[in-house]
Amino acid sequence: MKDLVVSKLRIWDSRSGAALVEDSSFTVKAGKCLAIVGESGSGKSLTCRAIMRLNKAGLRQSGDIWLGDIKLTALTEKEIRRIRGTKLCLILQNGMRAFDPSSTIGSSVRETLAWHYGWSRSEMIGKMAKAMTAVKLDDYLRILNSYPHQLSGGMLQRMMIALAIVLEPEVVIADEPTTALDTVSQFEVLQQFALLRERLGCTMVFVSHDLGCVKKLADEVLIMKNGVIVEKGAASDIFHAPRHDYTRYLVTAKTSVNQHFRRLMGGDSFVFH
Amino acid sequence: MFSIDKVSMSYRSGVFFSGKRHSVLSDISFQWTPGECLGIIGESGSGKSTLGKLLLGIQKPDSGTILWNGKAVTDHKNRRGSISAVFQDYTSSINPFYTVEKALLEPLLHIGASGKPPYPVLDSLLEQVGLDSSCRGKYPHELSGGEAQRVCIARALSTKPQCILFDEAISSLDGSVQMQILELLKELSSTEKMGFIFITHDIGAAAYLCSRLIIMQDGTIREIVHTDQLKSVETSYAKKLLNSVIL
């Protein structure tokens, strides 16, 4: 396991020259989970994509990104393509757009696995079946044979996690994986993320604007606003003693809703049986 | 006053002419009284949004009746100006070629306003939702998500309807903006005596705003519960749903 180090990352629009992310440096220790929190337009997703080098052609980036002793920013396009998937794995917000709509889930998955590992067909199905049972997609043959539109958002999200389990990456980057989901699937997907970390012991970058989810997963939190990191620190510090005004604002934004709900349910630790 | 009585709805599924139907709603009955804040919660695919469309009269149910003040809701004359809606996707809710002003005027013209646009009314509407009157000349793409959603709410308010239906109206907004909109709605319900039907999967928000919650699963109503008795829900599904709230 290796640390992921981002130093002096700057992303700008090549046409207008406007800086979108300014001088962003952070380190994710091996096996830890870093959450990037911020409102829409704060540059969270851009940072993630910069690590994968997947930003659109109109955007330029400078600065160094290291994964252990590999300098990701110095690799050629061909080399980074090998790294994506096997070492770095990106889980996206919208499952419907992450899979090819014109082919079945199974053939999308096969394509990915064949590219990275060149396994035989039966090997692939065996490994996928195991991973899919782990994320509670029990009827795996039916799911592999269906098209993305036939599955729910939560199922597609879990499918992406299953794929990540098979690929065994060193770093998993999750870009708003629970935002598009309803309460129940959000809860289930979040549980799967926790299990994924247990299984692979991988380093994780988790992007979200939902502080409830962040609280459940993250070891460290990084708060971004308008492309600048305003605060970073251990999750417990950020939630209990935020230093920056903006962090305080984010942390307290939904307290009245949450407190109201807690009061209705009669205290902090309600669980039905 | 809404009375919904034994409503069922199904969509055609499968290949053309196969005649196979997939049931989305079955045997839904409840009442909504003016001024009430009613929440409809459930997972995606539970038929919440279909129910919303039926309430708005955009679609007709296969069987059962939906009466708005005693008359059929499907006839647009019966509901004109008295029911409004705000949808989840704020980017596609406003005509991209319309300025904010024109978007706000649209429902007013529809209920028979004519002559010079009533600028003071528009300004006070914008002020009510916390926007500046300088927004009036802007186009939708110049607004942020929260601002666009507020314009949609202002537009829904413009005809002073009895009931506004919100279909996942805050789900795609940031946490802090969600909070501002919730506060706004709370204020509107107490000052304007306006009633809401609030369709969402965000149980925390629904419990914050609404006085009564309908819990739906697979197209049926599992339980109707008053928010202050949320603790004592009976069905196992409602319990599961409440347990999975992430605070």
Automatic annotation (TrEMBL), chain A:
TM regions (residue ranges): none
Protein name: Nickel import ATP-binding protein NikD
Protease in keyword set: no
Source organism of the structure: Paenibacillus oryzae
Membrane topology: Peripheral membrane protein
Protein keywords: ATP-binding, Cell membrane, Membrane, Nucleotide-binding, Transport
InterPro entries referenced in this protein's UniProt entry, alphabetically: AAA+_ATPase, ABC_Ni/Peptide_Import, ABC_transporter-like_ATP-bd, ABC_transporter-like_CS, P-loop_NTPase
Pfam families tied to this protein: ABC_tran
Molecular function GO labels: ATP binding; ATP hydrolysis activity
Lineage: superkingdom: Bacteria
Example of a GO cellular component annotation carried by this entry: plasma membrane
Automatic annotation (TrEMBL), chain B:
SUPFAM superfamilies, per database record: P-loop containing nucleoside triphosphate hydrolases
InterPro entries: AAA+_ATPase, ABC_transp_ATP-bind, ABC_transporter-like_ATP-bd, ABC_transporter-like_CS, P-loop_NTPase
Record keywords, A-Z: ATP-binding, Nucleotide-binding, Transport
Domain ABC transporter: start-end pairs: 10-243
Molecular function GO labels: ATP binding; ATP hydrolysis activity
Top-level taxon of the source organism: Bacteria
BP-aspect Gene Ontology terms: transmembrane transport
Protein family: Belongs to the ABC transporter superfamily.
Name the UniProt record assigns to this protein: Peptide ABC transporter ATP-binding protein
Source organism per UniProt: Paenibacillus oryzae
